[in-house]
Amino acid sequence: MANERAIERNTIVIDRKTYHLNGKVRLFDAAQQPGKIVIGEVSAADNPNASEWNIDDLRGGIGVEIMDPAQDADRAWWSTLDLRRKGRFFLQRLATKTSISPAADVGEMAEFKNAMYATFSTAVHTYNNSTDTWGASLQTLDAAATDMAQGLVGGVETLVIATSSSLWHSTDGSSWTQNATNIKHVVFWKDLLWGIDNTGQLYYTDDLTTAWSTDAKLQMPAGYIQGMLVSRGRDQEEHIFAVTKIGLSVHDDVNQRFLTPAELVFPYHDDAGQGATVWRGDIYYPAGNAVYKIQISDTTIIVPVGPDLDHGLPQDRRGVIKQLMGTHNDLIALLDASAAAGISTPARVSRGVGKHHGFTAGVSTGFSEVLGRDDRGWEVKWVTGTSGRGISTGVVANAYSTYRMWWSENQEVYYQQLPVDVVNPLQVPTSTYEATGELELPWNDMGIRNQTKVALDVLVESVSPSTSEYLTVEYAKDYDDTSVGAYTLLTNTDFATGEINTTGETKFRILLGGDPIGDVFRAIKFRVKMFRGATTTSTPQLIKLTLVWDNKINVLYGVSAVVQIREFSPDGRNIKQQVADLKATLAKGPLSEVTFRNDTTEAQNYYMRMRDLQSLEESGGEEEVGDWNVTMIEPRQSRDR
Fold it and tell me: Taking residues 163-178, what's their average pLDDT?
């Protein structure tokens, strides 16, 4: 950089040429400061001089780690709170662990005759709702269960359990009979019980005391079958669908064959199809963390709707969807993160048939969870408290005349009471809630990455039924939420520990060195933690969280001066040449160096563009004698300030 200097008084150097000045130089900030920005609820913004980020609606669900403020204002990154209501965030419904379970892995569960049945390893147990126990074994199976269902066989209500090497059945839940056919998965359709073995051979019967009838054969390698379900086909008639590791095959009942339409073929995935289900008339097909919504008609529509979309799930919450289940309000996904696929470096393993090849990623352990999806997004219904504990199976049932969701976790069985319609739990006094919960919002750069932003205040509007129910709010900044001390707990004189346990609006001033001057950030995120006391029917509530912040772009200097052209310039140029040089600078592409100081440090040498050139010339004569108003500005900072 050339160090040009204005050595004489009342001179200015523009583009390495020196001019006389008429009067003083005006140095000013040429940057146009941004206006107020409101993210979220616009009507809530009441400060004309500061911007706001209002968080009171997260019905879009989890899955966004870095938000686009224009479209992700209703999204969270992760949360175990109820996000289904606008202006109300609170603890999730209480999950209850059944007290005494056999010390064995849970295989399958089903409702039968108003009671719950489950297999623990090879033992069949039924749950006693009054004593909260699973009781003694009712039957020892020949192998671990691979499927379990109840329906009518020959007009008699029957519970069947498949083990891949045989099928066990009971009409009363206590006496069991073994059928030697190698059934792996079952489904009830057209007043018949249908079974399929590990090789893909389909059978059917309406009398389990006689041999099964042989039907279609799935033209795939052994082990590809993951289950069966009943749904409408292209002809709008119901058909059996074989769920496999490469998609869906539809059963042709008339010709006793399986058809595999091209649009229903997916890339090979070893975990694909596990627990596929039909919900609200559509097929939902899982593959790892992914879920595909399949609407079959003349034009089949397949839409990815899984929790893997956008930024997916946090790395210690990822895993494999073991089962999908439908409720009145949600599509439920049981996600097993006991081996959280993809956390460590992928290790490729080729497998498959034909063009269907895949790879298994390296694994580590994570936290398994129960997820729910409505028409807008996913939320977490429950998460295990210990890493590495798996979820294997579940069912939605009305056993004991109580609508519940049941699932297994690490040799234990849990249930959660469900509403039979769209109900706000806060309006039901008997609703019970989890002991703790958290909400982690996405990183937000306010849509202006290159501007200085300052967090000024945080307003928290909340409800606490008693002082035993409280919440805390923390913030992290600049994409660091993992290092020690990354989160700052918000406190004030009323809540020195940050535990907000009263109802109303609480203001936290952002302090720096004890002074309320705000905290500069590039991006910011919040984490809310909730806690309840011993009363399970009470929950703290967050109504709205507001960040008040200011934004300011970097200073860009401008110079305004009156150049006097009446004689030779200090560097010896005549009047005509000076005017020509100013006009050339106005038309110039590259920036021009400007200074009006004799400063050897170059701190007051600026690289600018001429924005305006106006003259006040004397009339008459040939030469353009007069004063020229010159305005120069920095399009970007000449140096770091």
Answer: 97
Distance CA 333, CA 321 (A): 6
The whole-number pLDDT of residue 355 equals: 41
List residues bridging with 90 in a β-sheet. Answer: 82, 541
How far apart CA 584 and CA 573 sit, in angstroms, is: 15
As to burial, measured by CB atoms within 10 angstroms (0-12 exposed, 13-18 middle, 19+ buried), residue 496 is exposed
Count, residues in the chain = 641
Structure tokens at 485: 């001390």
Q: In sequence order, which residues have a C-beta less than 8 Å from that of residue 241 and are 6 or more positions away?
A: 228, 229, 230, 231, 248, 249, 250, 251, 283
Residue among 498, 509, 494, 505 nearest 461 (CA): 505
Task: Outline where 137-288 has alpha helix (H).
Answer: none
Q: What is the DSSP letter of 446?
A: T
pLDDT for res 364: 62
| Burial class of residue 425, CB neighbours in 10 A (0-12, 13-18, 19+) | buried
Lowest mean pLDDT among 108-112, 547-551, 601-605: 601-605
Reduced 3-state DSSP string for 439-476: EECCEECCCCCCCEEEEEEEEEEEECCCCCCEEEEEEE
Instruction: Report how far residue 165's alpha carbon sits from residue 179's, in angstroms, rounded to the nearest whole number.
Output: 9
Element (H or E) spanning 168, and its range? strand 167-170
pLDDT tens, 344-372? Answer: 333 333 344 444 444 333 446 789 999 99
Burial of 301 (0-12, 13-18, 19+ CB in 10 A): exposed
Nearest alpha-carbon partner for 166 in 135, 198, 190:
198
Question: How big is the chain by its Cα radius of gyration, in Å?
Answer: 35
At 481-538, the pLDDT tens digits run 999 999 999 999 999 999 999 999 999 999 988 899 999 999 999 999 999 999 999 9
> Looking at residue 75, what DSSP letter applies?
B
Task: Name, in order, each residue with C-beta under 8 angstroms of 171's C-beta and a sequence gap of 6 or more.
Answer: 156, 157, 158, 159
Residue 376 three-state SS: coil
Q: Coil, strand, or helix at residue 579?
A: helix
Q: Which two tokens stand for residue 81?
A: 């709170």
pLDDT band (50, 70, 90) for residue 340: low
Is residue 229 scored above 90 in pLDDT? yes
Q: From residue 369, how far is each of 78, 95, 378, 395 by CA, in Å?
A: 12, 12, 12, 15
Two tokens, residue 362: 């390296």
Give the max Cα distance, the chain: 122
CA–CA dist 552, 572 (Å, integer)? 43
